[in-house]
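#lab-general

N.A. 3:47 PM
ok so I finally got the sequence cleaned up, no stray characters, all 262 residues accounted for. can someone with queue access submit it? mine expired

B.Y. 3:52 PM
send it over

N.A. 3:53 PM
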Amino acid sequence: MDEIRAESWAHLQELLFADSWHETLQRHRSDFVLRGEPSGNSNLATSLQRLGGNIAETERHLLRNFRKYAHRDVVHADEFWHWMALAKHHGLATRMLDWTYSPYVALHFATAHAIEFDRDGLVWMVNFVGTNGLLPERLRSALEEEGMNAMSADLLAEVAPTLSNFDRLGEDFVVFFEPPALDERIVNQYALFSLMPSPHARMDEWLGHHPELARRIVLPADLKWEVRDKLDQANITERVLFPGLDGLATWLKRYFSPRQPG
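B.Y. 4:20 PM
back already:
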């Protein structure tokens, strides 16, 4: 896949919004989703994979017990994919990865911690519309019938009501899943998840076999402070992306911390 090093703030904008023009619509509508990483060495291992051990067995226990102990009124519908989204949203280790439609939200997560400003960051960009062409027939047909580019919880439930059903749809694909609007955080982060048909599947490895669907933008360490300051001016901050007192406190602490030399 292409890897391009941003040379300036202006160059970074060009890279993030490249290929967004749709001639038929006469509008800028990007087919890419993005994920910001503070380190250029970051891979796309899931939180479940980072746990280690027998992750297939662990996954079942985690999801079953989350659903068992959570209050029933915390989901919009008592269906598996609503529970899966809720669990991910609240930090449970799952096979899903976080993505966003917003280039600036991705940049926020690449520059959220000044302690990591001494190393290059990274923004992954994946053509999620292109990935749909490699989906199993049942998933692809469901999306096409609804005129959608990403699955909703309800549509996914129609095709595969459980994770076991989902895993039997195929062996080698990535589907993007828009979670229900559980709260303002999901909405403000313009968030969606990627999902693969095995807890062991790695998206970076999958993209290595389909390099035409992805690109990586290197965010140089010496550009991070400028990016961070301009995101703050554009109101892309923890106060907005994590509504509530915790997000407010995190933003204030970071915003008023003095810049460290180097």
